[in-house]
Design a protein that fits this description.
This is Immunity protein 17. Helix content is 83%, strand content 0%. The chain is mainly alpha-helical.
Length: 71
């Protein structure tokens, strides 16, 4: 078992997902832009979904790595 692969890489993925969602929040002035057409709103949703996938994937692999090292 390698601690870098099991714990540090999922933490890095979580940090990237959180910083990406913070960046999206900053450029959109909130969760969704106002006064834009439907197409650009769907682009915003794709970005938020990507950030959510990064965070969820990091959490899943982090929990898996923690369980590998504890049991």
């Amino acid at each position: 078992m390698n601690i870098i692969e099991d714990i540090l890489l999922p933490l890095a993925i979580i940090i990237v997902g959180l910083s990406y969602s913070k960046w999206l929040y900053k450029i959109n002035n909130g969760f969704f832009r106002k006064n834009v057409d439907l197409f650009s709103n769907s682009k915003d949703l794709q970005g938020w979904f990507g950030a959510l996938v990064l965070i969820a994937t990091g959490l899943i692999f982090l929990l898996k790595g923690i369980f590998n090292h504890t049991f």
